[in-house]
Amino acid sequence: MPDTTVLDGVAHEPGVAKPDPILIADGVVRRFGGLTAVNVGHFEVQRNTITALIGPNGAGKSTFFNLLTSFDTAQEGSGTFDGKPLRKVSPHKVARSGMVRTFQLTKALEGMSVMENMRLGAQDQPGESLLTAFVPPLWKSREREITEQAHDLLHRFKLYEKRDDSAGSLSGGQRKLLEMARALMSKPTMVMLDEPMAGVNPALTESLLEHIIELKDEGMTVLFVEHDMHMVRRISDWVAVMAQGELIAEGPASTVMQNAAVQDAYLGAHHDTDLGEDL
Amino acid sequence: MDILINALEQMFTPATAAFAIAAIGLNFHFGLTGLLNMGQAGFMLLGMYGYAISVREGLPMWAAILVAMGAAILFGLLLGWPTLKLRGDYLAIVTIAAAEIVRYVGRSNTLVEVTGGSLGIKGKDYKGPLEDLSPFPDERITVGPFTYHGSASDSWWLRVVAWVLVALFLLLFWRLSNSPWGRVLKGIREDEDAVRSLGKNVYWYKMQALIIGGVIGALGGVIWAHGSAVVADAMGRPTTFWVWTILLLGGAATVMGPVVGSVVFWAALSLIRAVAKAFIPESILPSTAIEPFGLMLVGIALILLVVFRPQGILGNKKELAFHA
Ligand SMILES: Nc1ncnc2c1ncn2[C@@H]1O[C@H](COP(=O)(O)OP(=O)(O)OP(=O)(O)O)[C@@H](O)[C@H]1O
Ligand SMILES: [Mg+2]
C-alpha cells in the first residue's frame, strides 16, 4: 500500500487544500466552442506524492494536462508551479522550470535514434546554442555526461539494446517507455504522464509501476492519467476524479472508488468499467 | 563527344556552385528543420541586390557582403516572425509570395534608379572587386578541354571562389547538423510539440534555421550574380523550384546531397538539351521549344523522385522521407 501519511489529515473532497502543494490550479476553464472541456474550480497536487487523475473518456483529463503545461491556453483561471505563476508562460519554459510531460498519443521522434531521442531530453547542453555548437570542446564533455545518464535510464526501461535503432522501429509500448525515459533526462521535479501504461504489456507494466514509485523515492512529484484502476490503486497516494470537465472527487483510491458521484460518472459513461475489487 | 564535354563543363560552372550553395541553405530549412521555404530565390535575389548595389554605390567588398547577409537576415525575420508559430504550410505560402514581391519590386520601374528595373544591374557595376582579387592572369587559359578567362566574369577565378565557398558551407552544415544544436532542429522536424515538451524554444530555433539558410541562399545569389548578371526575372519561382529539385535529387538532410544534386541536375539538363537538339527533328521539336522541353523533363523527374526515391540519391529513407 502506498504511504499516504502526509495526506492523512486532508479531507476527501474535490478541490481540497494540501499541506505542501507543488502545483495549484485555480478556476481553470477551457471551452471548445459550446463545449466546456475543463472547468476545475480548485486543484492542488501535494509535493512528492503520486497522484492519479482518472475519469471517463472525454472527461477533460488530457485537456487539463495541456492547460497545466501551457500546451493549451485556458479562457479563465490561473495556476502556479512551485510558487511560480503558470499563466502565459510558454510550454518550453514550463518544462525548463521542472515540470515535464508525456503525451497520450506518444510523440517519439521517429526519424531519430533512441539515443538521440534521449539526448534531446537533457537540459544544460551548451552545444544546443548556435555559437557554441561550432566548437565541440565546449560541449563534448557535457555530451558524455548526457550519454551516460541516457544509458542508465535506457537500462532501467529495458531499451538499452535498442539504443541505436530508430525510434520509428519501436513498438507502441516501447515508444511509451522511451517517451517517459526521455522526459526523465531533464531531471524534472514533477512529471505529468498521460496514460503511461496504455499499450504496455503486463510484464513491462510491472516495471513501469516500479519506476514510477522510484521517481517518488527520488523526490519527484508524479501526476498521471490512467484508466486501469488496478494500477491506480497499486501506486497512487491520492486520486482525483474528473467528469465532464469538473473535478468531482478526491481522496485515497479506496475512498474515491466508494464515492457515489464517481460510480455514477463511470457507470453513466460506460457500464463495463472495472473500478477494482471494491465495487 | 562535345555533348559529353559540355555536360562535364556544366558540372562545375559558377551557376552549378551557386545552386549548390542555395540548396545547402535550403537543407538547413527543409532537410534539418522541416521548414517549407518556397522562396529561396527571394533570398538569393536579395543577396544579389544587396551586394551589387552596395558595390555600385562605392562600398568596399566586405561591407557589400555584409549588406547581402543583412538583407537576408531581415527578410528571414520578417517572414519568420508571423509564420513560425503557425503550422508549416503558412511559411510556404508566405515565402512564395514574399519572394515574388521582392522580384516584382526589383523589376518595377519606380525603383529603376536603384535596381535597374527589369534590365537589372550590369556586371561591370559590381564584378570589379572580386575580379581584382584574382591571382590568375588576365587572359584566356586552357586546361584540358576547358577554356575560360583567368579572372573576368565566368572565369577560372570565379570557379575557384565558388567551389571553395561550397566546401566551406558543406563544412558548416556538417558541423552544425552533427551538433546538439542540429539535434534540436531534427527533433523539430519530427515533432515540434515533443521538442517543446523537452524545454527547447522551438520558435527561436526555427528562426535561427530560417535565417542561416536564407543567408547562405543570399551568398549563393552573390556567386550566381558574378557568373551572369543581376536580373530580377532570373530569380522567379522556377529558380526556387530548381533549388528544391536539386536538394531532393541529391538527398535532403545529407551533407553532400545539395552538391551531388546540383552537379547531376545541371549536367543532366545540358545532356537532355543537347540530345534533344541532335536527335529530335526540328519539325517535331523546334529549337525554341528545347528549353521548355528540358524543364518539363525536370518536372517529371521531380515527381518520379518524390514517388520512387523520396530520400534522393544519397539520402537515408529512415531519416527523411518527404514528410512535410
Ligand atoms: N482541440 C479540441 N477541439 C475541440 N474539442 C476538443 C479538443 N480537445 C478536446 N476536446 C473535447 O474536450 C473533451 C475532453 O477531451 P480530453 O481529451 O481532455 O478527454 P480525456 O479525459 O483525456 O479523455 P480520454 O480518457 O479519452 O483520453 C472531449 O469532449 C473532447 O471532444
Ligand atoms: Mg486523454
Task: Give a verbal description of the structure.
The complex is a heterodimer of chains A (279) and B (324). Chain A is α/β, with parallel strands linked by helices and 279 residues long. Helices cover 34% and strands 22% of the residues of chain A. Chain A has two domains: 5-108 and 188-267, Rossmann fold, CATH 3.40.50; 112-169, no CATH class. Chain A has helices at 61-68, 91-96, 114-121, 130-133, 140-156, 172-184, 202-217, 229-235, 253-258, 260-269, and strands at 21-32, 35-46, 50-54, 76-81, 84-85, 99-101, 190-194, 221-225, 238-243, 246-251. Chain A is globular, with a radius of gyration of 19 Å. Chain B contains 14 helices and two strands; from the N terminus they run αααααααββααααααα. Chain B has a domain at 15-235. Chain B is mostly helical. Chain B has helices spanning 2-11, 14-33, 40-56, 61-83, 88-107, 112-115, 128-132, 156-177, 180-190, 192-197, 202-227, 237-250, 257-279, 290-308; strands at residues 140-143, 146-149. Chain B is globular and about 60 Å long. Helix content of chain B is 68%, strand content 2%. Chain B has a two-stranded antiparallel ribbon with strand order 1-2. Bound molecules: adenosine-5'-triphosphate and magnesium ion (MG). The site of adenosine-5'-triphosphate has 12 residues of chain A, from β2 and α1.
